[in-house]
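Hey L., structure's done. Input below.
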Amino acid sequence: MWMPRLLSTVLIMPALWAAGAVTGGAEPLTVEPVSVADRKAVFATVESIDQAAARTRLGGTLVELAIDEGSAVSRGARLALVEDPKLALEMRAVEARIQSLQAQRALARTELNRIAELRRSGTVAQARLDQAQTNLDVVDRALAAVRAEKSVLTQQQAEGVVLAPAEGRVLRVHVTEGTVVLPGETVATIAAERYILRLYLPERHARFIGEGDRVAVGARGLAGPAAAGGELRQGRVRQVYPEMQQGRVVADVEVEGLGDFFVGERVPVYVDTGTRETIVLPPAYLFERFGVSFVRLEDGREAVVQPGLATEGGIEILSGLRPGDVLLEPEGAR
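Output:
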């Protein structure tokens, strides 16, 4: 008759796991204590590395809005249009002045040509010719100035188009169509395409984390990888901020494949915070009966064990085994 044994946790040597796997359970597996990294589970939030604000450059009325929250935009894409009715009136006034100056210029040039003919025949003095030339030059300068003023108005009208400052996804739209906006007012906030996990660790774990460290990232959802059956992904600590926030260390973790996550979504992350002793068994050495996990000892007895989370090399065993125990694979696993 067997009895379950509660022991301090220890670990099976990785080399022995490999031996058991290669021989398909023909050789026994001996439990020996080994120190392993202790992982703490925390939650990190998905954040964009950069957030850009699309702002108006012109004051007026927002007559067009081409985006909504969640819209994917490219750099330079048209997001909205702002119009100022006064600019259209000023443009018409400038165009009228240009037409007037063009007529004056034509008259001044005709006058200059007539006086030049009279000067060649000696009918008028040179001063009269110089005066006619000056009149034409004055009109030309005035026409150039008004055309420059028209270019300014044209540029102001063009600045009514609000463009995306960066490629990414729209997080928030701050205005609606018909809103009166001022120069520099934010129309939308855009999250750049690059995303990171922002991690908040308790102060006691600050000495265990550094730039370049590897962390394990769980599956989406708050249940974690053990409940969801997902595999852990590897991430790298990109930056550790020098200032604590409310007694917590803030760090950024780079992970591939965060582009389809929601900004602000919480993801389980496992960080190494020291070492501890534990047992890890290959799954082939475990079997269940009536919802209880068992292992088979070398002498043929069966022992009840308490499995924990899946980890590198197998499944952690919380209790039921001790160093020196020899295990065999159950007959059904062969």
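Residues 85-120 form the longest helix (36 residues). DSSP finds four helices and 22 strands in the chain.

-- N.
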